[in-house]
Amino acid sequence: MTGPAGVRLTHWPAPDMAGALAGFAALTYPRYRPVLLENLIGPQPTGTPIAGNCFAVTAHAGDMPAGLALVEGMWEGEARLLSIMVAPSLRRHGIGLALLDGVAGMAGDAGFTRLYCFHNNRMRDVPAFAALLRRAGWSAPALAEIRLTGPAGFTNAIRPHWQALFDRQDRDGYSHSLWADRTQADRDELAALHESGQVEERLTLQDWMLSHADPEVSLLLRHHGRVVGWIIGERNRQLDCIHYTSGFTIAPLRRCGWMIRGLYEAAALQARHYGPDHPARFETFNGNDGMMRLMAERLAPYASEQDCRFRSERVIG
Ligand SMILES: CC(C)(COP(=O)(O)OP(=O)(O)OC[C@H]1O[C@@H](n2cnc3c(N)ncnc32)[C@H](O)[C@@H]1OP(=O)(O)O)[C@@H](O)C(=O)NCCC(=O)NCCS
Fold first, then answer.
1. Which of 101, 132, 311 to mutate for ligand 1's pocket (most ligand atoms within 8 Å of CB)?
2. Cβ–ligand 1 contact at 289 (below 6 Å)
3. pLDDT per residue over 220-235, tens digit each?
4. How many C-beta atoms surround the C-beta of residue 16 within 10 A?
5. Ligand 1: which atom is nearest the Cα of residue 99?
6. Is there an atom of ligand 1 within 6 Å of 128 CB?
7. How far is residue 55's CA from residue 285's CA, in Å, rounded to a whole number?
8. What separation in angstroms does the CA of 184 have from each of 17, 187, 211, 300?
9. Pairing with 201, which of 66, 193, 214, 228 sits 20 to 30 Å away (CA)?
10. DSSP β-ladder status, 78-86 and 54-61
């Protein structure tokens, strides 16, 4: 297949592919290189296992690897663009657009109905990538996940602004206790909460999380004394921070800011126990739009590190 200005495009998997993609390794992220070197086994019908379900389009200019778009087929008819890159000296010649067209055609042929991708705010070439996606008819990037890291002492600065909310929550029956102090009755209530179907699958407490729960900061959240949620913080010794890996409140209380109250209280305990400079890290993703907005608008100013993941997509066919 010929692409723009004599560039040769190849769809992968292809015959005689063994070793053929090694030369393109520099045109994707290190974490995806094993796919090129070992595991490119081709598109599978929808519903097959994810592992190895990758396909790609490459661009050659003469003998030179000029570009690569790499896709992984996912579930429910969706395929994820893992990376797209064009050799710096060959950019703005239409190769990126041709690669995207190529993978969209392959995805459609394999029965996928949607292509999507993520990019991070820390990616070097965001404007070029966003412009390419726009030009290729993808949706505008939308915030899909946000992770903030900052000194736990941000709680001191924020308290005066949130005091009125906290007073209202206290009047409405908010309280918390340390996770480590939970009684048998609390455990029974937690089990009942899970059995009642009120806890979404992705938020279900897992044993591996609990075995890492830091006893100084992990909390049970209560409404008039009854268990209605939790905040689990894990001490990450490598980064020397507390990573808040799980938070839950029952749906009616989310609109009343109970999750953010719980996080606030956990971080305030962290500041007291580990010191105000000790880093707190939390993240949330779509499905919880209110929390994401709150993090982006209200908490981000206190963060020393901000990691945002944006999602774009294109419907195929
Ligand atoms: C993003 C990238 C793949 C674009 O490849 P490319 O071959 O230069 O893109 P194209 O030439 O096909 O551009 C098509 C259109 O996208 C838009 N576009 C691409 N790069 C742009 C830039 N730097 N600034 C503004 N618009 C740009 C333009 O509308 C362009 O059309 P035009 O040249 O007629 O104006 C390339 O810049 C790249 O490899 N960047 C580094 C890797 C990266 O960030 N990948 C994305 C995450 S995996």
1. 132
2. no
3. 999 999 999 999 999 9
4. 6
5. 12
6. yes
7. 27
8. 60, 5, 17, 38
9. 214
10. unpaired
Map out the domains of the chain with their CATH numbers.
4-138 (3.40.630.30), 146-311 (3.40.630.30)
Are 23 and 67 within 8 A, CB to CB? no
User: Is the CB–ligand 1 distance for residue 114 below 6 Å?
Assistant: no
Residue minimizing CA distance to atom 35 of ligand 1:
92
* Residue 12 CB partners (closer than 8 Å, separation 6+): 21, 40, 42, 55, 56, 57, 58
The owner of tokens 């015959």 is 15
Q: Establish whether residue 91 lines the binding site of ligand 1, counting it when its CB lies within 6 angstroms of any ligand atom.
A: yes
pLDDT 10s digits, 11-63: 987 666 666 788 999 999 887 877 777 656 555 444 433 344 788 999 999 98
Cβ–Cβ under 8 Å, residues 94 and 102: no
Nearest to 79 by CA among 61, 100, 58: 100
